Amino acid sequence: MRANAQPLLSRLLSLVAIVLIAHTPAAAAPRPATVPVPKLNAELLVFEVEGCGYCNLFRRDVAPAYSRSPRARDVPMRFIDANRTDVSRLNLAEPLKVVPTIVLMVNGREAQRITGYMGPEPFFHMISTLMRHE
């Protein structure tokens, strides 16, 4: 495989995932309600793999801004290498198919997830929707 083919393949796979998610009929996959996040019992798990271009972009463009936000005190972000961790032991609702995948864990169980990376602005919009504080 050519040296620059890997990032292109990663981008193509992410684009396919975005299109599939965007075109999933509502009846086939109902969207769960927004999950209120209790303080100190929640965290964001960011699943990544070494060499993933989108994972690197997430770390560069999103992680520093998130860590400076007030929300990060209540819901810290932790990075997990999906290739070096037995993810079956983490109480995920479904297997990981795309990296990065950001999973909101509440009381040790998956509450919501964001699959793939589309940029900082969409991420922060989605995270605000997922983590509505009462």
Q: How far from one another are the termini?
A: 50 Å
Low-confidence stretches: 22-29
- Beta-strand percent range: 15-25%
Classify the fold: give the CATH topology: Glutaredoxin
The overall pLDDT, averaged over residues, is 81
CATH class division: Alpha Beta
Helix-strand pattern = HEHHHEEEH
Main sheet properties: 4 strands, mixed
Shape: globular
Largest beta sheet: strand ordering? 2-1-3-4
Evaluate the radius of gyration. Answer: 15 Å
Known CATH architecture: 3-Layer(aba) Sandwich
Task: Note the topology.
Elements lengths: L4 H18 L19 E7 L4 H9 L1 H6 L2 H4 L2 E5 L19 E6 L2 E7 L4 H11 L4
Characterize this entry briefly.
The protein is of the alpha+beta class and 134 residues long. The protein is built from five helices and four strands.
What does this protein structure show overall?
By secondary structure, the chain is of the alpha+beta class. It has a single domain, classed as Glutaredoxin. Helix content is 36%, strand content 19%. It has five helices and four strands. Strands 2-1-3-4 form a four-stranded mixed β-sheet. A hairpin with a 2-residue loop joins strand 3 (101-106) and strand 4 (109-115). The chain starts with a helix and ends with a helix.
